[in-house]
Design brief:
By secondary structure, the protein is an alpha+beta fold. It is built from eight helices and eight strands; from the N terminus they run αββββααβββααααβα. Strands 1, 2, 3, 4, 5, 6, 7 and 8 form an eight-stranded mixed β-sheet that branches.
Length: about 240
């Protein structure tokens, strides 16, 4: 009888511990987004958030007339992060650290003439645009780059502007053709603030970016910001059924 009671108590203890572990896992787990479309309907954009020694974010003026995401719409003259659509068509390959950085680095060299080195610690910001009419998704993946990983004195191929969070807001409120691409609160805005939050050398800018992001999208730290890039990319591959 005593042995039976001990065995029963041990079983209850195991169940209790397992339940606690499950609750802890669910509490701390990064919210996993399930893509609403198959992988063949997803496009990837690779971007770099270039932070200056002053802790500001460098944006470039867009020279392209059209938009690959929204046909018939022009963002020429607006400001954006350096980067763009990846050339590699194999999403499983693109969603690896080496290939994603390679694509973003290529864009920075082509657009600005800047050589970028991979940071020792990488975070990632993902902003998704869903085109319900076409049944497609565009994933914009931004890697923040601290000042020691690029030379900000390089002669830029395009017109650029360095902004802190307040200046980013002012830029977003300018007229179309000279504003932050798509305006305040949109993808380019959130990716820009995410970069400042992650890599700015000025604590004031970091805090301001965090406050602004929370006002725009309260759940951004659960749904768009990823501290560990390799873990994030593995999650993205699972979301698309590539792993």
């Amino acid at each position: 009888m005593a042995e039976m009671l001990i065995l029963t108590g041990f079983i209850y203890l195991l169940v209790f511990v397992a339940g606690c572990n499950t609750m802890i896992y669910l509490f701390f787990k990064k919210e996993q987004r399930i893509a609403k479309v198959p992988a063949k309907k997803v496009t990837i954009g690779a971007f770099l958030g270039l932070i200056t020694k002053e802790g500001k974010l460098r944006l470039q003026q867009r020279t392209e007339k059209g938009s690959p995401i929204i046909p018939g719409v022009s963002y020429r003259g607006d400001y954006e992060l350096t980067g763009g659509g990846v050339k590699e068509k194999d999403l499983k390959k693109v969603l690896t650290l080496e290939e994603l950085f390679k694509e973003a680095k290529r864009e920075a060299k082509e657009e600005l003439g800047v050589v970028v080195f991979m940071p020792k610690q990488l975070s990632l910001y993902r902003a998704v645009f869903v085109n319900q009419e076409k049944g497609t998704e565009d994933w914009a993946l931004t890697i923040p780059i601290p000042p020691e990983c690029w030379n900000e004195t390089t002669k830029m191929k395009r017109i650029t502007i360095d902004v802190n969070p307040d200046e980013l807001r002012e830029l977003a409120n300018r007229p179309k053709g000279e504003q932050l691409l798509s305006g305040w609160g949109k993808r380019m805005c959130r990716m820009s603030l995410g970069t400042i939050f992650t890599s700015s050398t000025d604590p004031k800018y970091v805090n301001e970016a965090k406050i602004m992001l929370t006002e725009i999208k309260p759940d951004w730290r659960k749904t768009e910001f990823f501290k560990n890039t390799e873990e994030a990319l593995a999650q993205f591959r699972r979301e698309l059924g590539l792993d």
